[in-house]
Specification:
This is Elongation factor EFG domain-containing protein. By secondary structure, the protein is an alpha+beta fold. Helix content is 27%, strand content 19%. It has a four-stranded antiparallel beta sheet with strand order 2-3-1-4, with helices on one face. The longest helix is centred in the N-terminal third of the chain and has 18 residues. The model has no long low-confidence stretch (mean pLDDT 82).
């Protein structure tokens, strides 16, 4: 699991370039290697630009052609969109295909039936994972309770709510993955080596 929400990590490749193992076999067991590897991976992920991902439903809807615009307006309010609408041959109905994030899909069918006066039928199935908009580690974003978050704050809101639900601290800090010696080594700037400049005119 990753360091943000302790959920499985996707689309990540790790390449180990160098490993220093202890001389004694007793210090090379899984109890020593696994926690060290986990700390290394978590700190590497946090120094990159980690993002949260969310599941997305594919929607298959059938409705009369004149209410396709109503479906589009309902989907827009829930971060969804229509990708295809076409007439069904031999029928007055249209087949509409769209996508909606699972997080915003709760109550969608009720809203759809209300807006279309029961003329639209919908079937949803999981389709893919998508990146949640925004930076989950941006501490400048303030989440106000009982207010919808703007799109750029969704990742931060999702991170905080998931960590609260799991009983984790709200602060995702890289410091807990380093011991004091390693932290001071990283924070100490490397000396800059001066390269002499030779004037070609001399």
């Amino acid at each position: 699991e990753g360091p943000l929400c302790e959920e499985p990590v996707r689309a990540t490749k790790l390449k180990i370039l160098d490993v220093s193992l202890a001389d004694k076999p007793i210090h090379r067991g899984g109890g020593q290697i696994i926690p060290a590897a986990r700390r290394t991976v978590h700190s590497s992920l946090l120094t990159a630009t980690p993002r949260l991902m969310e599941p997305v439903y594919r929607l298959q809807m059938q409705c009369p052609g004149e209410i396709v615009d109503s479906i589009q307006s309902v989907l827009k309010k829930r971060r969804g969109h229509i990708v295809q609408d076409r007439a069904i041959p031999g029928s007055v109905l249209y087949s509409v295909k769209g996508y909606i994030p699972v997080l915003d899909s709760f109550g969608f069918e009720t809203d759809l039936r209300t807006y279309t006066q029961g003329q639209a039928m919908v079937h949803s199935v999981f389709d893919h994972w998508a990146v949640v908009p925004g930076d989950p580690l941006d501490k400048n974003i303030i989440i106000h309770p009982l207010e919808p978050s703007p799109p750029k704050a969704l990742a931060r809101e999702l991170l905080l709510k998931t960590r609260r639900r799991k009983g984790l601290s709200e602060d995702v800090s890289i410091n807990k993955f380093f011991d004091d010696a390693m932290k001071s080594q990283i924070q100490t700037p490397e000396p800059v080596q001066e390269i002499p400049v030779v004037d070609p005119m001399e």
